Amino acid sequence: MWFLLMLVILLTNGMSAFGLKMIAGWGLPETVKYPYLTVWYAGGLAAIALPMLLKGMRFGKTELFWGGVAGALSIGGQIAMAVALSSGVPGHVVFPIAIGGSIFVVALAGRLIFGERMNPPTALGLALGFVAVVLVGLS
Amino acid sequence: MSLSFCFLGAISFGLLGTALKAAERRKANAAGLVVSAYAWPALLMLVRTLLLKPGGHVPAKVYVIAVIFGICAAVASLAFQVSISIGKVTVGWLMMNLSAGIPVVVSVWMYHEKLNLLKVAALGLVLVSIVFLFWGQVVEKRVIGRNPAGRE
After folding, report:
1. Distance CA B27, CA B29 (A)
2. Cβ B73–A44 below 8 Å, yes or no?
3. Where are the domains of chain B?
4. What residues 116-135 of chain A have any CB closer than 8 A to a CB of chain B?
5. Which DSSP helix (H) or strand (E) runs through B133?
6. Which of B57-71, B76-90, B97-111, B119-133 has the lowest mean pLDDT?
7. 3-state secondary structure (DSSP) of residue A27
8. CA of A132, closest CA in chain B: separation in Å?
């Protein structure tokens, strides 16, 4: 189950941002990204909400609160990166710091708050993955 | 000063991963959480779109790919949220970020972008890292199998 979930994350999350690149490739104006992102979020929302409704599942205050926190932090991160980029910091500096740094924060929280312990192969995989993500950001 | 916004971005995204794990610990329903997490930005983007000057034509193909890739993103978010209930948040978060290698490969194939040494090294490391992470999971399963109380 875990392996399948990791493969799903790898493929679907990887492709999820590809649309903006396709739009750029079509030479459409910059403002197109707003209706694009509206439908992008709405499509994702519907894909999860419809099966939930059909199954009669409900969500309460916990989901609403943590979903709001997640949304705010996501938007906060995007704005911080956009400000850094617009104030002249090159993309090959912004992306590795923001993405690599976020992994460091999550790893720290995983250890200190959630008590996660790593066996040697996982720790090595994390270290190599950290470098890989920074290199992908640089490239 | 400008560089500090990069670190602010890192902290913000890092706290996002941490908040999602905290929600899981509080037994938040994974699908409900994803729905809530997508509803807020959808609303914000809708407002931003409505504030655009009228008259700009948006081709239908933009909406088609928006739906396809939006579904991809939501499925990824749901898979991540489910994965952190059975595995480590750090590994799940790393996998979310390692997935940045996929569009690099697709771009090379679709747009014939050149593969330089840096990209090859990055993609190679992505693969090696995944192998080690999967190996680590196999090792952990064996340990848990021998000692079920040893689970985190």
Report:
1. 6
2. yes
3. 2-150
4. 116-126, 128-133, 135
5. helix B117-146
6. B97-111
7. coil
8. 5
Q: What is the pLDDT of residues A65-118, one digit of tens each?
A: 998 898 888 888 888 887 887 787 777 777 778 888 888 888 888 888 988 888
Q: Which residues of B touch A35 (CB under 8 A)?
A: 49, 52, 58, 62-63, 66
What pLDDT score was predicted for residue B90?
86
Residue B147 above 80 pLDDT?
A: no
| Total residues found in chain B within this entry | 152
The complex's ipTM? 0.84
What pLDDT, on a 0 to 100 scale, did the predictor assign at position B15? 92
A33 touches chain B (CB under 8 A): no
Which residues in chain A have Cβ-Cβ distances shorter than 8 Å to B122?
Answer: 132, 135-136, 138-139
Calculate mean pLDDT across residues B133-143.
Answer: 86
Taking the domains of chain A in order of start, what are their residue ranges? 1-58
Q: What is the 3-state composition of chain B as percent helix, strand, coil, each rounded to the nearest 5? A: 80, 0, 20
* Chain B neighbors of A1, CB-CB under 8 A: 86
Q: What is the dihedral of CA A131, A135, A136, A139, to 10 degrees?
A: 180
pLDDT higher than 60, residue B144:
yes
Residue of A nearest to B135 (CA): A121
Residues 70-99, chain A, touching B (beta carbon < 8 A):
70-78, 80-81, 83-84, 87-89, 93-94, 97-99
DSSP secondary structure letters along B92-112:
HHHHHHHTTHHHHHHHHHHS-
What is the predicted pLDDT for the residue at B148?
Answer: 66
What is the Cα–Cα distance from A131 to A56, expressed in whole angstroms? Answer: 44
pLDDT in tens, A35-60: 898 999 999 999 999 998 888 877 78
